[in-house]
Design goal:
9-stranded parallel β-sheet, 6-stranded antiparallel β-sheet, Gal_mutarotase_sf_dom, Immunoglobulin-like, Alpha-glucosidase, TIM Barrel
Length: 651
Amino acid sequence: MEIKELDNNIKVFVNNFELINTQEISYGKGSPHIKEHQGHFKIKENPKILGKGDCKIETNLLSENILEMTIQVPEEYNRINIKLNTSKSEKIFGGGEQYTHLNLKGKKFPIWVQEQGVGRGYDLISIVTRFKGVSGSWYTTYFPSPIFLSTLGYAIIFETYSPMVVDLKGKSSNFEVWDKTVKLVIIEGDSLKKLSKEVRKYFNTDHTLPNWIHGTLIASQGGTKEIDKKVDLLIKNEVPLTAVWSQDWSGTNITSFGRQVYWNWEYDKKSYPQLPEKIKELNKKGIKFLSYINPFLIEGSRLYNIAKEKDYFVKNSSGEIYKIYVTTFPAGLIDLTNKRAYEWYKEVIKNNIINIGTSGWMADFGEYLPVDAVLFSGEDAIKYHNKYPVDWAKLNYEAIKESEKKDLIFFMRSGFLDSVSYCPIYWAGDQNVNWSKSDGIASVIPAALSLGFSGVEFTHWDTGGYTSLLWMKRTPELFMRWVELSAFSLIMRTHEGNRPDNNVQFDTNRGILKHFIWMTNVHYMLKDYLKNEILKSKLEKLPVIRHICLNYPKDPQSYLQQYEYLLGEDLLIAPILHKGSTERELYLPRDNWIHLWSQKNYEGGEYVRIKSNLGFIPVFIRKESPYLNEILSKIDEVKKKFKIDEKSFKP
């Protein structure tokens, strides 16, 4: 990295390319127009650019390849526009969790935490949800992040929680920050792999995963009797069950949307009587219990009334509790800028979740802070909005640390910037139970890969999807293909969905159950490999689920792949993403590969078409992998044990 200073002008060069000329930094004034509906935000603004180049710039060279640059504009302005030079061939990755596009070059979008949306595209379900104001757009995401990695050899981190508008469509890359000051971190590197490592190092992520995470984590709703029923069935059929996840541990709230959780974070004594004793019973069988929490409390519940009395909720402009409707019912949102509220909610987690024996939980939501909310701290809600999920992650992280108990985890969907320092595991959120690229099974792959570019270590998804509306229901084929995808992922956790009775589950019929038994055992067979890859991930600062260009930077075709991924160093996964498909074309990067099921050799650097009956997702292993013989041998053992062949399963 080279920095040239002349008078009031600073130029920054990366790999001999002029990236920034501070004379091109402009500033102005803007008034945001933000409309919100159930966690979905529409952001419009046309700021007036009133000045250019006359900024206060401070630089700090942290190392030979990392530069901090702080930009401050005159007090009367509130918008900063930072211009980066670009090239036609440049590809830009990152931006947090992106479900539709990995290469963001040529796109314009806001950096704003919000609901992902239902549909997010142009299919029929998207048209229906657009009328209801909840469809979302290609860029809407639970976890945006102002982190970008370029094939020109740089990464840039914007250290701000303020909203941003990113415009990568023109001859330059433009980043509009809604603030008077911003700190940039510019990193030089000769590959996306090197840049990804530096991003991880910058946030100092150092999370560990418990051993039980490598088994099957099964969703169960309806109470302890349902848990017993599922556990008995799975143990009987030799499924490697290591955890039961009951999101409705605090009770059920039946709404027009479906079966939802009663948001009062105490175990429901009616459906889960003597839950602490039941958890001990499960633990004796080697099974952990996972639950659920979010930063809302449903109006009228016991904990809501306590928080109301203590004045712990976010307020509206009239000084009343801001009643937020997530689907159909009102709830209060805990004001995390209030230190007493923050500490009280942490105690709720420690006393009502951790101390009853829970080993982990979904820490849901974090996207809903209204822009006109009145906060205890007096902060501007627009500027705090993106920080809310960071503080929500920090609260859960501290609850575990202060409990001094080991092997506990939580997982989130919402995030921003340094959330990665606190939350160990992310999941992709609420996908539709369909095949769409915009919001179905296919969308979880770019979501995972983009998170990997944005500093996240460990990620996964709801096996089977979540959202079921109108005619959209989970089919046997979709569920089985999603199970196959999850079998070759880091964490295999199911979800029954918002309407479990209307959707296929793992035990809907014997054929689906047989397929589930097969794939869960295949996943468990990978545990030693995955343990090693997790350790390598911590040491090398690379995600376990990663884009193939990180390992094959000199292969031009590797940058174009969006719906296949590497699981660790040695496994390449290309799932079936189309209804009725029994084959798939995929790209094998330049290496020597063995097809997992046929054990046929393939030379990389070309596209191949692979047959894929149900139960046999396209998977390749590097010929030079030290795990090659072990994995192939274990696959054969599992096939023989359960008498599996390529004609075993039908949709």
